[in-house]
Design brief:
Shape of chain A: globular
Largest sheet of chain A: 5 strands, parallel
Largest interface: A-B, 45 and 38 residues
Radius of gyration of chain B: 23 Å
Distance between the termini of chain A: 59 Å
Helix content of chain A: 25-40%
Distance between the termini of chain B: 31 Å
Oligomer: heterodimer
Number of helices of chain B: 19
Number of strands of chain B: 1
Strand content of chain A: 15-25%
Number of strands of chain A: 67
Helix content of chain B: 55-70%
Radius of gyration of chain A: 42 Å
Strand content of chain B: under 5%
Chain lengths: ~1500, ~375
């Protein structure tokens, strides 16, 4: 798809956003031959609709209605879903765009993941579930929701946790801390050991830079990582049974490796090499193993037994030999002993001298030597002595504290800088001070004064700090003349130490640096001598144990590579790490769990360990403080758990994907308003204040409480719920209405009552109930009847009642009484905001935003972004509901179909299969494949048992089991087995055919079998899941299911989908705005259109609209439209016409049209593939309010005419001073219980026009609810600002219009003031509603489509199929559907065209295979089946047979859906459904009844 | 059922002449009244009075007492989702009502026109200066003898005449207030209630205790101190002038000194505080300032400052300067009282407690009426 020549159109589209809008557009376009790339920023498509519970006004389950669509998209061959992606760049022009997408790694291989969810059980990380709106947690490896497509999991990574980032050895504290928090100590330990074999040691003496970097330290205190690590080691010692088993491949290699030095570097190297199977010998000069750990670190920090046990566990138990008291004299000698490689880790054991006079006096001993003597148990005589330690590092403090323990009377640490610069760990300094060590800062010894050769005094000079030196610390400078001296018996210089490599330098040519350390390659640690490696302090000079351990680890790797003859550097660079930066704002503080330790008194005269370690409870509590900075901690336990080997933590973090497309559709959705920016509502502070989206999740059966309505603070069912409307809508910052909140709150209240019970009180606080959509008003009335309480007041604040955590809400009743009421739960109806990152979207795509940052679209081109070839749909352009989104998406699809009509089908095409094997006449040879589904099935059902049982069944020639039958390799295996065993029928016993049958059918096709020779037994959903606690009975049931299905399979026959050619033309009924738009769209897509209009002129009711609320003149547009329609070659226009007859069905309709030509009529017969109903509606003719009796009472359309007519009528009629408008005339009453949707906006439009023309005129609007949804709200605000007075009246208190001595008076009862008021009016304007056309009934009969109670046409599904009829091939749009605005009519008209295009773009109509078929010999034409058929697919026909008239029925294959109703009604087996023949069902029933064994 | 209200569509335009009203278009959501710490069920505001004005219910608006129940803490304005400034609209209604109560029509003229208001102040000031020029006593120049320059009894008589005039205007306007609110209202008021509720009037007039219920308690304390200084000074110069205005310089412990100092100090401090607040516009209540809002503190401050100057010059023994300053002082203080007390912002000092008083009476009357209606049912044993 690369390198297309310029300006050549590409038959592909990019759809941004996989919500319901993007999904609709994707399906429409993929069906019409356009290749679809569906880019979604989350890990799965579905958008917000997937999170919803039920949908209004039908109470259908959102997920149930959309799931088949999600599955269809996931399986569609021409739709490619690109998840976790953002568009970064768009180049090119309409027809040929180059788009660059930034795709985040999923870390899961889509093809391999079977969605079994075993990984989830292993993941120790819990983060707020976005899908469940933070009410519950999800794991770091997650699937957005159970039905998600793609069904594969994803891993949420936010980089590398700072603790892990900080560790020189790459140890992963995040992982083991997370596991400790879950009490999974053994797993934590093994994860820890991957990078560090010495947890007991490092848990005690490591300076733990990880804690310094811990993000929690910015909040309160870092996690006690070292303490937790130590806990793990201690726990293991206390629970030897839990000890992880030793690796099995010890000493499997013949090579021998010598390690010089048994310090941390040597031990670490030995550990890792032993794991790899080498023979290791460690040469140790001292009498004990452990190096500095043993001879440098005092026992109170690292007890000897701990050290010894850990060396044993990690090294000697692996078969490593440690030769003590064995100094090495030369490398050659070692090599001569047959060692293939050497690792030199001799440490740095030579203490540096002070370089001052008197240093050689008796009583001066360097710290390294001193500590060695102490630690090797040499008797020391320090009792009563004054000890001076010179230096400020950990060694200095080790020496000082050891001296104290050995009885020194006074111990002073002399340091030449200040405390701030001191390199020792702060806790060491503190503990030393607690124990009584004195510290002198800013002094340096200049001379050691001796008496009789023994130290007597130390002479110091005072220092001051100057500029920082190379290490960044301020350099100390002596203060002249500040010398002073103090008495001392022992002086211990602890300045630094360096390696003592005399044994090497003398006997080999190994490179030694000037600082006295071994020169090595920084990456591989190889010295200049091949096969000789070096690391630890011997290379770096004095450093930490963890650095030495890391060196040992690297050396082990290098040695291994060396011995295997590999390049030493191959792949030794670790990938670039990005440090995770957790947002800690607003997180609660929690102090770390204090580490128990022995008191100063109890420790200062002995070498007992100071810190006592955590208990398991303490460790868990402490570990739970972890903030999980990186989300995924990379413990890699999921990798171990994944049977499908689908997880790859090493996937590239980012990737740029370039695609070429001809057009782009943007459906990025919306962002829900975050109510925490309004602190007075308490969201985020009070647990029982939640958002409506959270409440949707609570209501949802798949939600956090499985559909139980519980409140978050105590998980108890609420008794009273308050719903607060307009949170983030209809205020001065967001002066728009979010359009959906009133209805979703109504629905949530109804559903909550349904879940909790009738006694649940639901109060909805609102300003106007905006039930403006089709069926909404009736839904609102229903809610009131069911006891939902509507209170007309906007709530400014919520207060929590402390004890009960209930919420006190103050409000005003409509008659102005202030009331306070307590609620258990408050649901904030959050409004719709533009999607996140909308500014970027607008920049990248080059599109314009309006003042609220929604995408701006022209009123007459409502899906156009302003940039050609880029279309928009959904709440991105204005807050809107699902059907409006779906319509706009189909409308966008229509635009793309027109743009890319020449290249339709160029990138799509049917899948090619091998020729089908003829199996007729063959004995059944059935193969049964039983699925483990990870442990989903195998955890309960004895799968091998089922396989064995299957083998025993008749006709079964092969049976096997597999981990995941749907995985790619298993599917390949099915094909292989079909060939090998000449299988001619296949049974898969696994999950549900709803999701998997199409996959397995195509596997059969790929193997050359007819796809209908396949059956599924659902032993997961219907067996292992529902009987998870009864494995035996579940296994029996699984066998039953397999037996039944196998029995039926034996009787399966090949079936074929039929197809019919279709007429690629459309009939459009109605030449109003919608009809014309629809006709033009279809014509632009390249198809023939027959446009039928009953009047002599085109234009419909729109011709009466003189101006629009935004000031535009629609007549210009209408004129242009009419001209375009008349000029378009492939539109055939019939005016003064009506329908005589409609025959046929989708693809092949035949319609007779009568046209009036003067006094005579002409008949035209046309053939077409689809029908679009755009027959419009009309204004209600009022009978109320003296209309028709007084010429001063007019309708809005009449007012509009007056206001727009030029001057002439103004002179005729006196200018009115006061105009009173009355809303809901002919709407929302008993006769027409629906809202006409547009009257509020129309009244405000005309009121504004009046104010614009003559500002002095008083305008009163009497209303029930002002329903200016979406951006119309702004005009309502404007009208109020201009002084239009709005007075609300109640249902049963309609205004009265009367004439009093020729004065018009309007009486209205103001609800708020509680007063009847009389307005002297000069003009009364009635906002008459929209009513359906009378002829709708006739059209409905012709087309076999239903009408609503109000005689508007009824679509197939109110939410998801708003322009379709249940009857395929017939679509509707415009006012024929329901009242709507010009913009909405255009969208729906374009949508109808878009939907029509999915059919017209095909050559043939494909029919179902599992449909009804008449058995002629049995059918006697009784016609019992004709009426019950819900699809009107059966007709009774007569034919001649042997001279007499016989009757039979005929099935219209394009209408039949294979539901089986006809088969059930037929008394004579005269009609059957293919694939469900009576015989096939009978054997299944017989098999079910057959006893097992 | 209340009787029908004839709508006057021009009402809102009339109200708007008195200041800020309904800036962004109220949709009567009720937030303002819900958040108001002072509103209660018998005196619901701000929504109700604002709505009366919006729809044009003139008669009920003229009789409404709710604007006087509001102390303008500004909560309603900060809460209003449409930022319509209900607090300031209530302020405007108070101006409208003050003007409506005033039968002379002067209050309306002063509120609506700067020329009228400042003109009137200048005129009265000039008249005072003119009187001083005509009637002042001998000018003693070797020492300060203010009582000689301005004979106390003469000034005192002048004060009393002024007091009587003011009382006449105030009482006649208060009568009209009573008429609109109490007589033309829908409830019949038993006369006894006027007596039993009298302590309430006193309490509120003296303490402005309702103000304390506003969210910011500090504002009540400030206001209370200012009023105490003002009332004290008013009493000292109008009633006790002969004792107060003397050429004797008493010791600091003398009440004449410290009472005077206290009064002037709080006047200066709190008028300056008010003026700074109005300049800065930081607090909700100071966002909008009409001329009447400016003039009242400015005049008070100037009166206090010139009063201090008189006292200072006398103390320093500067006779001429003392006399001239005294004339200036009088030319400010007198117009302030004559113009502002009956016709200006000052009027709230009596309309507000009266409003609360009348409102309470009305509330009680309504309760009585309601209890009478249910009496028969209750009498059944």
């Amino acid at each position: 798809m690369n390198n297309k020549p310029e300006n050549k159109k590409i038959g592909a589209v990019l759809i941004v956003g996989g919500g319901i809008g993007g999904m609709q557009a994707a399906l429409d376009l993929a069906e019409s031959g356009i290749k679809v790339y569906l880019a979604e920023k989350e890990s799965a498509i579905g958008g917000v609709m997937a999170q919803l519970d039920k949908t209004f006004p039908t109470n259908d389950c959102a997920m149930c209605t959309m799931a088949p669509r999600i599955v269809e998209i996931g399986r569609h061959k021409d739709i490619e879903i690109i998840t976790l992606s953002d568009v970064k760049k768009v180049e090119g022009e309409a027809g040929n765009f180059k788009v660059i997408l930034y795709k985040k790694a999923r870390y899961i291989n889509l093809d391999q993941c079977t969605g079994c969810s075993l990984c989830v059980e292993k993941c120790p990380i819990q983060v707020d579930s976005e899908f469940d709106q933070g009410i519950i947690k999800r794991t770091a490896i997650y699937r957005r929701y159970p039905q998600a497509v793609p069904g594969a999991f994803a891993i949420d990574k936010q980089g590398i946790s700072p603790c892990r980032f900080a560790c020189p050895a790459g140890v992963n504290p995040h992982a083991y801390v997370a596991l400790i928090a879950q009490g999974r100590f053994a797993e934590a330990l093994s994860v820890q050991r991957r990078e560090n074999p010495f947890p007991a040691i490092c848990g005690r003496i490591c300076p733990h830079g990880c804690e310094t970097e811990c993000r929690r330290s910015d909040l309160d205190q870092p996690i006690a990582i070292a303490g937790l690590k130590r806990f793990l080691a201690d726990w293991e010692l206390a629970n030897p049974d839990e000890k992880s088993s030793l690796p099995q491949d010890l000493k499997t290699k013949k090579e021998k490796v010598a390690i010089i030095g048994s310090g941390p570097a040597g031990l670490s190297c030995a550990h890792y090499l032993a794991h790899k199977g080498y023979h290791i010998t460690i040469f140790e000069a001292f009498s004990v193993a452990g190096g500095m750990l043993r001879v440098g670190i005092p026992a109170y920090r690292l007890p000897r037994d701990i050290l010894e046990k850990e060396i044993a566990a990690a090294v000697t138990d692996l078969g490593v030999e440690i030769k003590l008291n064995t100094p090495v004299d030369s490398l050659d000698e070692i090599r001569a002993q047959g060692y293939n490689a050497v690792f030199v880790a001799a440490g740095a054991h030579k203490g540096l001298t002070l370089g001052v006079p008197g240093e050689n006096s008796e009583g001066v001993v360097d710290a390294v030597a001193f500590l060695k003597d102490v630690n090797l148990g040499k008797e020391m005589k320090l009792a009563g002595k004054k000890v001076v330690v010179v230096g400020g590092g950990n060694t200095a403090f080790d020496a000082a504290r050891s001296s104290l323990r050995l009885g020194a009377s006074k111990v002073t640490v002399a340091y030449r800088r200040s405390r701030k610069e001191m390199p020792a760990n702060p806790w060491e300094i503190e503990e030393a001070e607690q124990e009584g060590v004195k510290i002198q800062y800013l002094v340096a010894p200049v001379e050691i004064l001796s008496k009789d050769g023994r130290v007597a005094n130390v002479k110091y000079i005072k220092m001051q700090l100057s500029e920082p030196d190379g290490s960044g610390r301020r350099r100390p400078v002596p203060i002249k003349g500040s010398e002073f001296s103090e008495p001392a018996d022992i002086v211990i210089p602890a300045i630094s130490q360096q390696p003592d490599l005399s044994f090497l330098s003398e006997t080999s040519d190994i490179d030694i640096s000037r600082a006295g350390s071994i020169e090595v390659d920084r990456v591989t640690l190889e010295t200049n001598i091949p096969g000789v490696f070096a690391g630890g302090d011997a290379v770096t000079g004095p450093a930490t144990a963890i650095e030495a351990i890391q060196a040992g680890k690297i050396a082990a790797q290098s040695v291994d590579r060396y011995l295997r003859g590999e390049g030493l550097k191959s792949g030794s660079e670790k990938g670039e790490w990005i440090k995770a930066e957790k947002d800690i704002e607003g997180l609660p503080e929690k102090r770390r769990v204090a580490m128990p330790e022995i008191s100063v008194k109890a420790r200062r005269d002995n070498f007992k360990e100071i810190q006592l370690g955590y208990t398991a409870e303490q460790a868990i509590e402490e570990a739970k403080r972890c903030l999980d900075c990186a989300t995924c901690c990379e413990c890699l336990l999921c990798v171990e758990a994944c049977g499908a080997k689908a997880i790859n933590h090493g996937m590239d973090i980012e990737g740029l994907v370039t695609i070429d497309v001809g057009a782009i559709i943007l459906c990025p959705g919306f962002e829900a308003f975050d109510p925490s920016v309004k602190p007075e509502l308490g969201y985020g502070r009070y647990p029982n204040v939640i958002t409506s989206l959270q409440f949707e999740r609570i209501l949802s059966a798949s939600g956090p409480f499985s559909g139980k309505v519980l409140r978050p603070s105590d998980n108890k069912p609420p008794k009273r719920i308050a719903f607060l409307q307009c949170v983030g809508s209809r205020d001065y910052e967001r002066d728009y209405c979010s359009s959906v909140c009133c209805m979703y709150a109504t629905k949530e209240a109804i559903m909550a009552k349904e879940h909790v019970g009738k006694d649940l009180e639901c109060d909805i606080f609102f300003m106007d109930v905006r039930a403006f959509g089709k069926g909404f008003e009736q839904y609102y009335e229903r809610a009131k009847k069911e006891g939902v309480n509507y209170i007309r007041c906007r709530i400014p604040s919520i207060k929590e009642v402390p004890e009960s955590r209930n919420l006190a809400i103050e409000y005003l009743t409509e008659d102005d009484k202030k009331v306070s009421r307590e609620y258990d739960l408050a649901v904030l109806a959050v409004g719709l905001k533009p999607p996140k990152g909308v500014k970027e979207i607008s920049e990248i795509f080059g599109i314009k935003l309006n003042k609220f940052d929604f995408c701006e679209t022209p009123l007459f081109r409502p899906v156009e972004s302003g940039r050609e070839g880029i279309y928009v749909a959904g709440p991105f352009t204005e807050p809107k509901d699902i059907p409006e989104t779906v319509m706009q998406a189909s409308a966008s699809a229509s635009k793309v179909q027109s743009l890319l009509k020449e290249v339709r089908g160029s990138l799509t095409g049917p899948k090619q299969y091998p020729p089908e094997i003829d199996v007729t006449g063959q004995e059944p040879r059935i193969g049964v494949f039983v699925c483990h589904c990870g442990t989903n099935i195998a955890g309960v059902v004895n799968v091998p048992g089922v396989v064995e049982y299957a083998k025993s069944l008749p006709n079964v020639v092969f049976a096997t089991n597999s981990m995941y039958t749907c995985s790619t390799d298993s599917c390949e295996n099915i094909k292989k087995m079909i060939k090998e065993h000449s299988l001619n029928k296949v049974v898969v016993a696994s999950c549900t055919p709803r999701t998997h049958e199409p996959l397995f059918r195509s596997v059969l096709q790929e193997a050359g079998l007819n796809p209908y020779l396949f059956e599924m037994a659902n032993i997961r959903d219907q067996c292992s899941w529902v009987h998870m606690h009864e494995p035996e009975r579940a296994t029996r049931k699984a066998k039953d299911l397999v037996r039944m299905v196998t029995a039926k399979t034996g009787l399966l026959e090949p079936l074929y989908k039929g197809s019919m050619p279709l007429k690629r033309s459309a009939l459009v009924l109605g030449g109003g705005l919608s009809g014309m738009v629809s006709a033009l769209e279809i014509a632009n897509q390249g198809f023939e259109v027959y446009l039928v209009e009953k009047e002599s002129e085109l234009g419909g009711i729109t011709k009466r609209i003189r101006y629009l609320v935004n000031g535009e003149n629609p007549q210009d547009e209408i004129k242009t439209l009419i001209k375009q329609v008349e000029e378009k070659k492939n539109i055939h226009l019939f005016t003064d016409a009506k329908i005589e007859k409609v025959e046929g069905s989708i693809g092949n309709f035949k319609t007779t049209i009568l046209t009036k030509i003067g006094p005579s009529t002409a008949s035209h017969e046309i053939e077409h593939g689809v029908v679009i109903v755009a027959t419009g509606a009309k204004e209600y003719n009022p009978k109320e309010y003296l209309y028709g009796h007084d010429e001063r009472v007019i309708t809005q359309l009449e007012l509009e005419e007056r206001l727009s007519s030029n001057g002439k009528s103004k002179k005729q009629k006196q200018q009115p001073k006061t105009v009173v408008m009355i809303q809901c005339v002919g709407s929302r009453d008993e006769e027409r219980p629906y809202c006409s949707r547009m009257c509020c906006t129309e009244a405000i439009k005309n009121a504004l026009k009046i104010k614009e023309n003559t500002p002095d005129v008083n305008v009163y609007i009497l209303y029930k609810d002002i329903r200016t949804y979406g951006f119309r709200e702004g005009y309502y605000t404007k009208a109020r600002e201009k002084g239009v007075v709005f007075i609300r009246y109640e249902d049963n208190k309609n205004p009265e219009v009367s004439i009093n001595s020729n004065h018009l008076n309007v009486k209205v009862f103001d609800q708020i003031l509680g007063m009847p008021m009389v307005i002297p009016a000069d003009l009364v304007v009635l906002s008459a509603g929209i009513v359906a056309e009378d002829h709708n009934k006739i059209v409905a009969q012709f087309l076999k489509v239903p009408l609503t109670q109000d005689n508007f046409f009824l679509e197939a599904h109110m939410k998801l199929r708003p322009v379709d009829f249940a009857n395929d091939g017939v679509f509707l749009c415009g006012l024929a559907h329901s009242s709507k605005s010009i913009e909405e009519s255009i969208i729906q008209a374009q949508a109808a065209a878009g939907r029509a295009g999915t059919i017209l773009s095909k050559d043939r109509i494909e029919l179902e295979a599992n449909i009804s078929s008449v058995i002629d010999e049995n059918c006697d034409g009784c016609a019992y089946c004709v009426d019950p058929c819900p699809f009107k697919a059966i007709t009774l026909i007569e034919f001649m047979k042997e001279g007499s008239i016989k009757k039979t029925v005929q099935v219209n294959e394009s209408l039949c859906k294979g539901c089986g109703t006809c088969m059930a009604t037929c008394p004579k087996t005269g009609i059957i459904v293919k694939g469900f023949k009576l015989g096939q069902i009978a054997v299944q029933v017989e098999a079910a009844l057959q006893p097992i064994e | 059922m209340a009787s029908e209200v004839q709508i006057n569509p021009a009402l809102v335009t009339m109200v708007r002449d008195y200041g800020e009203f309904d800036g962004r278009g109220c949709y009567a959501c009720g937030s303002c009244t819900v958040i108001c710490p002072l509103t209660n069920n018998s005196g619901s505001f701000p929504r109700r009075p604002l709505r009366l004005a919006q729809v044009g219910a003139e008669k009920p608006l003229n009789g409404s007492l709710e604007p006087w129940l509001c102390y303008y803490c500004g909560e309603c304005s900060t809460t209003c989702p449409q930022q319509t400034e209900p607090g300031e609209s209530m302020m405007t209604l108070r101006r409208y009502l003050t003007a409506h109560y005033d039968w002379t029509g002067l209050a309306g003229k002063f509120f609506k026109s700067a020329v009228w208001e400042i003109g009137a102040l200048v005129l009265v000031g000039a008249f005072v200066a003119f009187l001083a020029m005509l009637f002042h006593g001998p000018v003693v120049t070797d020492r300060v003898e203010l009582t000689t320059f301005a004979p106390v009894d003469m000034v005192h008589h002048f004060d009393l005449i002024m007091l009587l005039t003011l009382t006449f205007f105030v009482f006649s306007n208060v009568f009209r207030m009573w008429w609109f609110a109490m007589v033309q209202g829908v409830v019949k008021i038993p006369f006894l209630l006027y007596l039993t509720q009298m302590p309430k009037l006193m309490l509120h007039a003296v303490t402005q205790i309702r103000f304390r219920e506003c969210t910011d308690k500090l504002r009540w304390i400030k206001h209370f101190l200012l009023v105490s200084g003002y009332v004290l000074m008013f009493a000292l110069i109008v009633v006790f002038l002969e004792w107060f205005q003397t050429d004797n310089i008493y010791p600091l412990s003398h009440p004449q000194r410290w009472l005077g100092y206290y009064a002037t100090a709080v006047l200066v401090i709190f008028t300056i505080e008010i003026l700074i607040g109005r300049v800065k516009k930081k607090e909700q209540i100071h966002k909008y300032s009409e001329l009447s809002d400016w003039l009242f503190p400015i005049l008070l401050l100037l009166t206090a400052v010139t009063g201090i100057a008189v006292h200072l010059f006398r103390y320093l023994g500067l006779p001429l300067l003392t006399y001239y300053t005294y004339v200036i002082h009088m030319s400010i203080a007198v117009p302030m009282l004559v113009i502002e007390v009956p016709f200006g912002k000052w009027a709230h000092l009596y309309y507000r407690p009266l409003g609360i008083y009348f409102h309470t009476i009305k509330e009680k009357a309504l309760q009585l009426q309601a209890s009478k209606q249910v009496v028969p049912a209750m009498e059944v044993p």
